[in-house]
Design a protein that fits this description.
Number of strands: 33
Structural class: mainly beta
Number of helices: 6
Mean pLDDT: 74
Strand content: 35-45%
Helix content: 10-25%
Length: about 500
């Protein structure tokens, strides 16, 4: 649940800045949601603290063709700024706005409801928490046990039915001991739609979401509390699946996170298209975004790692997680990678260990350190430049110290690719095609998004076109005030066995 839940529960990466004109996505039909972001004062923290946040984040587990939704993203990629990513959704009639985390590791959108036991009443994020009241919405209805949509919850959570009131209920239990329970309701989700060169407000779609009546563990803490969680997974209960089934959005989402000091980026429910994108298939029947990693090369040399190290099972495999700040390697892959990098640069830089991290004293990395390639099934390779796996930790006697950002998964065969390696890339999650693709990209540039026109033909429109309409730009800035910082939070849940990395 990220930094909102405090206590080292999860790790997220804060992009610390205020809103400025972002790379916006333009297409024929584009529902939009406003992203907001909170973060603490800028400060540097040790890698050990980042690992601790990631550790509990990885321990969290759930027991058990239309337009494009555009999320403008702001902020900087800097793992030493620790915060939380969340967005706002408008639910009900009349619509009320709720702050929710965007969570790629679960499937259900849920918000705190009135008469909730254990739900925080206030938030240290300087936001006003709200409670959804189904009786106050003219369009809300409870999901009954006989409703076929109740069965969808079985895919994403522990669902059940009360024989007394015929209400479809749910219960989520997380690996850190926290949990939430409640019942499912159906109500209107409100969003904005871009049609041609005009912004049309008040578009709606009926979605099923959870009404939380009980929260336990870190979910009860107020220091980083929000109103709920926006599940962004693959199952039928996820909002992306529901919107796709209604023809509102395609079943694909994409992001491009800027890695420079200015930050920013793009996140869309839609397919960003760019020459050079390579795709690899998702591992079938997995709850997360698992890929088949086959080999790792350093300067073109294949590392001596057994292929079985990367095989996918109930407690092993390679997962793409935009909500993890660093990157993590299966234990048997970590030492070969670090040794190969160290051997390549040892004659040029001095090295040292800093709290278990391999670090180097050097003022320049791009001309000295090798290229690392993660090679996946189907021939797709993710090329990592030095800045994609090194982090500037501190300075000694005026010289910069860079540390390898990959962390060892102690006793685990899990590899997690977080924002450290995903930044400065277009990443496309094609759920319909069951594949993920990427290409290195300057995310400060506009992006092309695939959309379907009224005559059924696929067209490609450029995100830069949106800025050419001053009327539309002013409208967007109304929904994205410059005084608010933008955020998205993509989060993955892992098995409770991973709690102790």
């Amino acid at each position: 649940m990220g930094a909102l839940l405090g206590g080292g529960r999860l790790l997220v990466l804060a992009f610390a800045t205020v809103i400025s004109p972002a790379a916006l996505v333009f297409c024929d039909i584009s529902p939009t949601l406003t992203l907001e972001r909170a973060f603490p004062s800028n400060h540097r923290v040790e890698l050990g603290h980042l690992r601790a946040r990631d550790r509990v984040r990885h321990g969290r587990i759930l027991q058990s063709t239309g337009g494009v939704v555009d999320f403008p993203v702001e902020g900087t990629y800097n793992p030493y700024l620790v915060g939380l990513y969340f967005t706002t959704v408008q639910l009900g009639s009349p619509p009320r706005e709720f702050y929710v985390q965007i969570d790629t590791g679960s499937d259900v959108l849920w918000v705190s409801c009135n008469s909730c036991n254990g739900c925080p009443q206030s938030s240290g994020l300087a936001i006003q928490l709200k409670f959804f009241d189904p009786s106050s919405s003219t369009s809300a209805s409870q999901i009954s046990c006989s409703d076929q949509r109740c069965s969808l919850g079985v895919q994403a959570a522990d669902s059940g039915c009360s024989t007394q009131n015929n209400v479809c209920s749910y219960s989520f239990q997380y690996g850190d001991g926290s949990g939430t329970s409640g019942y499912y309701v159906s109500d209107l989700l409100h969003f904005d739609t871009i049609v041609g060169s005009s912004l049309i407000s008040n578009s709606t779609a009926a979605v099923v979401f959870g009404c939380s009546t009980s929260q336990t563990g870190d979910l009860t803490k107020s220091d980083r509390a929000v109103d709920g969680i926006f599940g962004f997974g693959q199952q039928d209960m996820s909002v992306i699946s529901q919107l796709h089934s209604q023809g509102v959005t395609p079943k694909v989402f994409s992001h491009c996170l800027k890695g420079d000091s200015n930050g920013g980026g793009v996140l869309v429910l839609g397919e960003i298209v760019e020459p050079g994108i390579v795709y690899t298939s998702l591992v079938p029947s997995q709850p997360h975004y698992n890929l088949n990693l086959e080999t790792i090369t350093v300067n073109g040399q294949v590392l001596p790692i057994a292929s079985s190290v990367f095989s996918t099972s109930s407690n092993s495999g390679t997962i793409v997680d935009s909500g993890t700040t660093l990157a993590y390697l299966a234990e048997e892959a970590y030492d070969p990678l670090v040794s190969a990098i160290k051997a390549t640069v040892q004659q040029y830089v001095s090295s040292s260990l800093s709290k278990g991290n391999q670090c180097f004293s050097t003022s320049s990395v791009s001309d000295i350190f090798p290229t690392v390639s993660l090679n996946f099934a189907g021939g797709a390779s993710m090329i990592l430049r030095p800045q994609d796996y090194l982090i500037q930790q501190n300075s000694i006697d005026g010289g910069a110290v860079w540390c390898i950002g990959f962390q060892r998964m102690q006793g685990q065969a899990i590899t997690i690719l977080g924002d450290l390696v995903l930044k400065d890339k277009i990443v496309v999650y094609d759920l319909a095609g069951q594949r993920i693709g990427w290409v290195n990209y300057d995310c400060s540039q506009s992006v092309n998004v695939s959309t379907t026109s009224s005559n059924g033909k696929s067209e490609f429109v450029n995100a830069g076109q949106i800025s050419q309409s001053s009327t539309l730009q002013s409208s967007l800035y109304y929904f994205l005030p410059r005084s608010i910082a933008a955020v998205f939070f993509l989060h993955i849940t892992l098995f409770s066995d991973y709690l102790y990395l």
